[in-house]
Amino acid sequence: LSRGLGDVYKSQDVCLGYAFCQLKQQPFSNNMVLFTSLFIDDLCVDAKTRGQHVGESLFEYVKGEAKRLGCYEVTLNVWAGNTSAEKFYEKMGFIDGVRGFRKVKE
After folding, report:
1. Helix-strand-coil percent breakdown of the chain, rounded to 5?
2. Is 51 in contact with 88 (CB distance < 8 Å)?
């Protein structure tokens, strides 16, 4: 199962930020217990409104949806070097759980 959901934070019809998520059935292997996860595919806040709690409001919406949908966890990925995003998500209670590597086609 992979289903999308999202929210847009607007003020006077101007988009200040958005959160797009995917509802996913885990596990990725046969030896794990089945559970539902809400994956934050993209959470973005307009640079001019950062520090005004737009991101926190969007994250609270995501947490509420995860709870309403019976999700076991909320997950996301952050690009290496995006320290401001890492700090934000740590402030929201996330922990560094998985590290991924990739190789770009030569």
Report:
1. 25, 35, 40
2. no
**Under 8 Å between Cβ of 15 and 8:** yes
Whether the Cβ atoms of residue 21 and residue 39 lie closer than 8 Å to each other? yes
Burial 4-22 (b: 16+ CB within 10 A, else e): eebbebeeeeeebbbbbbb
pTM (2 decimals)?
Answer: 0.80
The enclosing H or E element of 32 equals none
Report pLDDT digits (tens) over 51-106.
999 999 999 999 999 999 999 999 999 988 899 999 999 999 999 887 778 888 88
